[in-house]
Specification:
about 375 residues, alpha+beta, Seminal Fluid Protein  PDC-109 (Domain B), three-stranded antiparallel beta sheet, 8 strands
Length: about 375
């Protein structure tokens, strides 16, 4: 046979190299198909007080959500005004499966207490009970269930850096803060209430998040004597202001209740309207349902300026300091030298709680 020319040798070598490259690319394609797509960047966190119009996006529970039309205060994943855009921030989704989560599967007809966490097998998502219920479907009975972001672990008491659902205060730390608390004020009830205000203790640096949680709980400690009191001790006060809607539950029905001692008919109405709960007609819910009770405290903290110039939430995340949270809650009653002992008690609680959480207390502690 006639020997091959050098050109034919080069052609065969090139063909062989191409075959190898095709094989490698095929393998990479297969591997790429098995790998999850990179999650999009998270949009700004959803806020219950913000107004969204059609096409606007917000992040909530690990997913980006797009508003279908105008909305305010309607929680993504609960209200059908939102369209789920998928996981964001590279977290792999809104806590659906994996990540080491070991919560039990939801069972129809099984009784669940407030704070119970389950996995809904049909869609693989997790839900937390916001009210006691006899096994209602989490995807239908949204009054009783809220979506829950499961980021790993078994959801128990947690270690020293965080607790259930990613809350920066673990159950062990909560117990340390309130060793003598009333059994009504459950940690699970607090965690269940967090979904109402997702910006709480999740805004800013890790230090700021823990400082805000400590600030909220320190004021709660002062208002309730260490989470001992559910109802105001003196219930004879008339907290019925002249409003068009009046006081349907009774003239003396709007005394202080809950972790922030919600009082006055206008506060019960405003809180109820914001939370989708009729508290004007049923103020007793604040003292009978743990999640509702905690939600009213978070409502005031995140949305009300009170006698101050900013909400307590904004005071902590924008660097105004703990002293401004006191002003927003009790203003001239304690600030500007009016009652330094009461003010200092709040400060002492805050310093103690930040120490438990392992962060500095910061500046501007007094008012």
């Amino acid at each position: 046979m006639r020997p091959m020319s050098s050109t034919r040798h080069r052609g065969r070598r090139v063909a062989a190299l191409l075959a190898v490259l095709v094989g490698i690319l095929g393998t990479l394609t297969v591997l790429g198909a098995a790998s999850p797509a990179m999650a999009a960047d998270c949009a700004a966190p959803w806020s219950s007080s913000a107004v969204y119009t059609g096409g606007m996006t917000a992040s909530y529970n690990g997913d980006n959500w797009q508003a279908k039309w105008w909305t305010q205060g309607e929680t993504p994943g609960v209200a059908d005004v939102w369209a789920d855009q998928g996981a964001c921030g590279g977290s792999g989704g809104g806590g659906s499966t994996g990540g080491g989560c070991t919560y039990p599967a939801w069972v129809a007809g099984q009784s669940y207490a407030t704070g119970a966490i389950v996995q809904y097998t049909p869609n693989g998502q997790y839900y937390i009970a916001t009210h006691d219920n006899p096994g209602y479907d989490p995807t239908i009975s949204t009054w009783y269930w809220s979506p829950y972001s499961c980021t790993g672990g078994s959801g128990g008491s947690g270690g020293g850096t965080g607790g259930s659902g990613g809350f920066v205060v673990s159950e062990a730390q909560f117990d340390q803060m309130f060793p003598n608390r009333n059994s009504f004020y459950t940690y699970s009830g607090l965690v269940a209430a967090l979904s109402a205000y997702p910006g709480f203790a999740t805004t800013g640096s890790a230090t700021v998040q823990k400082q805000e949680a400590a600030a909220f709980l320190a004021n709660v400690d002062h208002e309730t004597g260490g989470l001992v009191y559910i109802n105001e001790v003196d219930q004879s006060g008339n907290y019925c202001a002249s409003e068009p809607y009046g006081c349907p539950a009774g003239t003396y029905a709007y005394y202080g209740r809950g972790p922030m001692q919600l009082s006055w008919n206008f506060n019960y109405k405003a809180a109820g309207d914001a939370l989708g709960i009729d508290l004007l007609d049923n103020p007793g819910l604040v003292a009978s349902d743990p999640a509702t009770s905690w939600k009213t405290g978070l409502w005031y903290w995140n949305t009300q300026t009170g006698p101050g110039t900013m909400t307590a939430h904004n005071a902590m995340v924008n660097g105004a300091g703990f002293g401004e949270t006191i002003r927003s809650i009790n203003g001239s009653v304690e600030c500007n030298g009016a009652n330094t002992a009461e003010m200092q008690d709040r400060v002492n609680d805050y310093v103690s709680f930040t120490s438990i959480l392992g962060v500095p207390a910061g500046s501007n502690l007094t008012c």
